[in-house]
Design goal:
The protein has 270 residues and is α+β, with helices and mostly antiparallel strands. The protein has two domains: 10-146, no CATH class; 153-269, Four Helix Bundle (Hemerythrin (Met), subunit A). Helix content is 52%, strand content 12%. The chain has helices at residues 10-27, 39-42, 63-77, 94-98, 126-135, 153-173, 183-200, 206-216, 222-230, 235-238, 245-269; strands at 31-36, 51-57, 87-93, 107-110, 117-120, 137-140. Strands 5-4-3-2-1-6 form a six-stranded mixed sheet. Helix 3 links the parallel strand 2 and strand 3 (87-93). Helix 1 (10-27) runs antiparallel to helix 3, helix 7 (183-200) packs across helix 9 and helix 8 packs antiparallel against helix 9 (222-230). 38% of the residues are buried. The model has no long low-confidence stretch (mean pLDDT 95).
Length: 270
């Protein structure tokens, strides 16, 4: 851990210190490194941000160590800190972390607001590897570029284009899933972020991608994007409130627009 703290937030630094030292104690020589990624690495975090972490390990976690990690995550969740309930991350064996392989096994994963580890591919993406390698904050262990092979811009674009299409298919099949004041603006900002990656070949935070989109995309979307940014605070409250119906309709139209320009970009550039 950095002696001056990995983030400007002292309470978060205390939680991260407890997390990493506890993981090291449990895993012993199976532990390689821990990194902070996501919005904290990209530089646009706020009080509502997930605390995205990644742990690199030598080999798959044993059953005994998995049970110990489960108990540890439940204990940390109960700490008297807002941040303790918003940790999110995965445990990557060294060979899995090095480069993306679509046939790899699911990873031990802790979801935001959860106290229980599950198996998931959630963090096993090119995007996560790029963010950790290029922007990740080392909490313990070697720099991330010693463990992760460089992720090309085209690899990012291929993954993002597929994600754009897959999520759009789910949303159009059931638009009600984004009919609240959290997921409707989240969808707008996420599609801004994916378009940014498609065009620029890098990963940006949602706020940075939204600012880019307001200038780079058709101006008719600027108001929708700006309103999505303003809806960011208090997600636990807003997820229980229905979305503005006009903004919901506009969001569906924006997703169609994103698919159209993304598809054309994919045919000509990828």
């Amino acid at each position: 851990m950095r002696t001056n703290g990995p983030t400007p937030d002292l309470a978060l630094n205390a939680v991260l210190h407890e997390l990493v030292t506890s993981i090291q104690a449990i895993l012993s020589d199976n532990f390689i490194a821990a990194y902070l990624q996501g919005s904290f690495a990209l530089g646009d975090w706020d009080i509502d941000s997930d605390v995205d972490f990644l742990v690199a390990i030598e080999r798959e976690v044993s059953d005994a160590d998995s049970s110990a990690l489960q108990a540890m995550h439940a204990r940390i969740y109960d700490l008297d800190s807002h941040w303790a309930q918003h940790l999110e991350g995965s445990y990557f064996p060294r060979d899995t972390l090095k480069r993306y392989d679509p046939t790899s096994k699911k990873l031990l994963y802790l979801d935001n607001t959860s106290r229980v580890l599950i198996r998931s591919h959630h963090c096993d993406t090119q995007v996560v590897r790029w963010v950790v390698r290029e922007c990740g904050i080392t909490l313990a262990g070697p720099p991330p570029d010693k463990l992760i092979t460089s992720v090309s811009a085209d690899d990012l674009r291929q993954e993002v284009l597929m994600a754009m299409r897959d999520w759009a298919q789910q949303i159009f099949a059931d638009p009600d899933q984004i009919n609240n004041r959290f997921y409707q603006p989240f969808a707008v900002l996420t599609y801004c972020r994916m378009l940014y990656t498609l065009y620029v070949g890098r990963v940006a935070s949602k706020p940075a991608a939204a600012e880019w989109a307001k200038g780079a995309l058709d101006s008719r979307w600027a108001g929708l994007i700006q309103r999505a940014r303003k809806e960011r605070p208090n997600p636990s409250l807003k997820i229980r409130r229905p979305a503005d119906m006009e903004d919901l309709k506009s969001t569906l139209a924006f997703i169609r627009y994103a698919l159209d320009i993304g598809g054309r970009y994919g045919k000509t550039q990828i």
